[in-house]
Amino acid sequence: MRRESLWTQFLLVLLLLVMGSPLSRSAQQLCTLQVNILDKEGNPVPEVKISVRLEGRELFSATSDTKGVARFPGIASGSYEVAAEKTGFFPASHPIELIRLESAVELTLSPKPVGSEKVEVRANAPGSEQQSASSSTTLQHDEITSLPNRPATVADVLPLVPGVVRSADGQIIIDGGGEHKSAFVVNGTDVTEPATGRFGITVPVDSVESLNVLKTPFLGEYGRFTAGVVSVETRRGGETWHFELNDPFPEFRIRSGHLSGLRNASPRVNFGGPILANRLYLAEGFEYRVDKNPVRTLYFPHNESKTESVNSFSQLDYILSSKHFLTGTVQVAPQNTDFANLSYFKPQPVSPSFRASEKLFTLTDHLFFGATLLNSTLSIQRFRATIGAQGDHNMVLTPTGDLGNYFHRESRQESRVEWLENAGKTLTNGIGVSDLKVGLSVARTSNSGQTIDHAVEVRDAQGSLLRQIAFFRQGPFDQSDMEVSIYAQDHWMPTSGLAFDFGARLERQAATHTQRIAPRAGVAWTPFRGSSTILRGGFGIYYDRVPLNVFAFSRSPEQVITTYGPGGVILDGPRLYQNLAESVSGERFPLVDSGNAASNFAPYSKTWNVEVEQTVAKRLRLRASYLSNVSDGIITLTPRTGPGVDAYVLGGRGRSIYRQVEVTASVRWLKDQEMVFSYVRSRTHGNLNEFSRYLGDFPSPIIPRDVFSQRPEDLPNRFLTWGVFSLPWKLRVYPILEYRTGSPYATVDAARNYVGVPYSDRYRYPNFFSADARISKDIPFRRKYTLRFSVSGFNLTNHFNALDVHANLSDPLHGVFFGNYARRFRGDFDVLF
């Protein structure tokens, strides 16, 4: 297939979306919106600040008159959110679709009792979600900050989402795929690390307005993923200044009833307000964190991994007019970790150190051209990372634990400069509403640095040398890439109970010499009146980004392996394994166009889902869904021997299969009291030698044969419930309960070769169960201050959740599970201004 023909196909799809829609010829009209504000008794509420928002951004604002009424003339037809705020009342908001020339919406404000919590309550219109074929899991700011685990960043929150778990090394797994297979966007901007594709240090929770996890977005604006999308919208400064000091006191370590130093500290400060009234707003979220994570399988004081970090996120919003405003953000987040990935088998001398620094600068211009909203964004990101060791000794791998020092040292500098443009317009006529959107993204990424690896020895239980790995050609690397993508999408609602999503996306990644077309389509249907039942479904093609460490592989140190027998006799080697990247040739996916150059990878997935959502009553909503994700073209790293050359080869023919059934129930008996129950049944299979296991921050020196098997992330059953409810004496309780199947593991021999089928159901950890809870109480202090006291409990049932297993057949304790985090409690103290 010629490249010109691929562009022609995409432009044809774009033309069909933008020009072929039956709604695209209708002109957009200007509407007048009237907002009526009432209290619970039906009386009008005057002097209420009312704002009309688009995608979380305030476009218009006014104050209700003595009759509780405010009017907004000259608003372009489309989808908006109306929000109301007044001191002494809980805020409220409501979505609205402006179609008619004259529209009205009514909001009811509930008065705050004395000493009540300062949380935002969002009113959800019945059936407001059925308009989108792409369902998502959404968490709002007040839900996030009230969790019992006291999350500091977005990454700490994500495991509460069905289908999302955290792996043993701290990586977020979405639908069985690692972070490099998912997209992480903040205000529409990609913020993943260019070298590894991982999320890095995410946004502080105090700066988050809303968090969305989408597994099957059928619109074209999302790309560079095959597993899921994590989308964060950040908070803008409000009309009045506010200040919060959260968790100012550290948690101390108590051993045998005696104080034994500091365990962790995570003071957080967030504040915001108007610098210039109705013009310039500031919002700041700042956290300093010290976390000494004790490993229960090691002895004190050599059992702690220490992480120290600063995370600052600042946002400025400047309103030039009702049709033109600017948003700028700055994030600075340095982090230092001593003894990363510490465990019984990798004690402190063998564990690596990690130093990282992330800086993010964005500027977005929001401008209305008549009825068209144009968003222009410039994003500049800088990443620095250093992986070190505790010394220069060789790393020694034994069946009972590793010795010496970690073998890998690396220093790298990464950057991303991205320019984004997107324009949206709502078109209406007698047969429905159509929201059209087109966009362009151009991103240049770079990754430079150097890797130095020290020798590795593999010994048996008696100390005899089995294998020695030396490293050759350790030079610097310097890689860059250019990614261009354009998309078009149409969200068409022919009737109020039926919606279609159509999208197409064209991506070009220069380093891979590939161009890719990604079509998607979805439907949402409300078959009965009253919006009690919603049916959704769709199909889409998605492509992974290929991180820059894939292209740096040819410059990475090459292994020289010598194999030994009894008495130190050389059985094989020294054998040099070159680092090679193959060209994916032959029959390829028809929507991918590429040359025959090496590393012409284009991992893709074919994903479809069906879903039914049923509102049983005002207080109960049920949702059941089935998802299928089949990924091909996955990049793997496998050993290859002779004839003529021995090599570790990066190939692009890996495969993974993920199936998931999800059932979720949401019970809300009051606006601020809710429980969420979810059950996920899933299975995942795939090639085990995916590149990320060997080219990440902490690579393994042993690269075994590739096997298609159950993956380490395979968790067949997971039940999760969490929420918030009230008790007498104005106490608030936030429970989290989780039960899941134990993770699979691989059994190996003394030489670290697989024994049997790795990660099969035969080798699993015991089932995991944890019951956590947080209880809090707000105490008013003077007129402006509120003191919030809380106590959190973890693993309240003291269930044995194994941390590790003796998985080496040559280990005398083979098959024994050990380690556990026992029941513990923590006190918190917050000050709200």
Question: How would you characterize this protein structure?
Answer:
- It contains 4 helices and 48 strands.
- The protein is mainly beta and 833 residues long.
- The strands form 6 sheets. The chain has a 22-stranded antiparallel beta barrel. A 5-stranded mixed beta sheet has the order 8-13-14-11-12. Strands 3-2-5-6 form a 4-stranded antiparallel beta sheet, with no helix packed on it.
- The longest helix is centred in the first third of the chain and has 16 residues, at 3-18.
- The N and C termini lie far apart (63 Å).
Short key terms for the protein model shown above:
833 residues; mainly beta; Immunoglobulin-like; Maltoporin, Chain A; 2 domains; 22-stranded antiparallel barrel; five-stranded mixed sheet; 4 helices; 48 strands
Query: What's the β-strand tally?
Result: 48
CATH architecture of the largest domain: Beta Barrel
- As for the number of domains, it is 2
Proportion in helices:
under 10%
Mean pLDDT: 85
**Rg, Å, rounded:** 28 Å
Low-confidence stretches: 15-28, 113-130
**Main sheet summary:** 22 strands, antiparallel, barrel
- The number of distinct helices, counting runs of at least 4 residues, comes to 4
CATH C-level class of the largest domain is Mainly Beta
